[in-house]
Amino acid sequence: MDNVTLARATMGTSLGFHIAFAVLGVGLPLLMLVAEGLWLRTRDEVWLTLARRWSKAFGILFAVGAVSGTTLSFELGLLWPRFMAFSGAIFGLPFSAEGFAFFIEAIFLGLYLYGWKRLTPLVHWLTSIPIAVSGAMSAVFVVMANAWMNSPTGFLLGGDGRVLDVDPVAAALNPSTPTEDTHMLVSAYVVTGFLVAWRSCSPASRVTTVRASSIKRSPRSSHRWKASTTRCGGLPFIWAAFQSIPSSGLWVRSRYRNC
Fold first, then answer.
1. 1, 18, 154, 164: which has the fewest Cβ within 10 Å?
2. How would you classify residue 210: left for phi > 0, otherwise alpha for psi between -120 and 50, otherwise beta?
3. Which positions ≥6 away from 28 have C-beta within 8 Å?
4. Over the stretch 145-167, which tens digit does the pLDDT of each residue have?
5. What pLDDT is attached to residue 104?
6. What total number of domains does the chain contain?
């Protein structure tokens, strides 16, 4: 096996591992943001339970995703040194911006995880907003670099093959960026919704062990609605995905009619 094939296999394996954590790192913060916001509005303890449990899972996913993402950044330079020497100055801007987004997410994630009993409920909820936004922007910036490889713009080649007149903004906002970024974000939210719904609606889910007697009654909901919401917390994301397919929408309504 030649070096190029080995490099591609290594990069593909690392990407395949990392993307599983990356999509959840984009989708789960939004679920946490919405769930805790609904708890602040309704004081329904089910939403608080969901936000707390999702935050524990997200903390683990973020740590693993950060390590696997760092591995990929090293592989870009180690496996493709000539490519990075040529194109690093062109699409280096999105990678730099992704670094800022990552550190913002890490800072506010620390405040979020360790601030459950140390911050006021409103301030704690506000810390989840930068997590959701920076998580999505991290994906946007990284995909910009991939989009540039499909539509290389923002530079000129000299007669000797050197890169001239680099425009990093034009390179980042290349023709493939809108479609690829939209595809990445929508895919991340839909996949997260499916996985959360599968985990929450499965009989083995520990969330279903929440007893109705332990849930404070909300003036806007009943115990039965709360228990169903706890089991099927991810269904709103699935519902949006199935609305474009009427037959699938009917299947969802029949399968999860108690949700």
1. 1
2. beta
3. 54, 57, 58, 61, 192, 196
4. 999 999 999 888 887 878 888 89
5. 95
6. 1
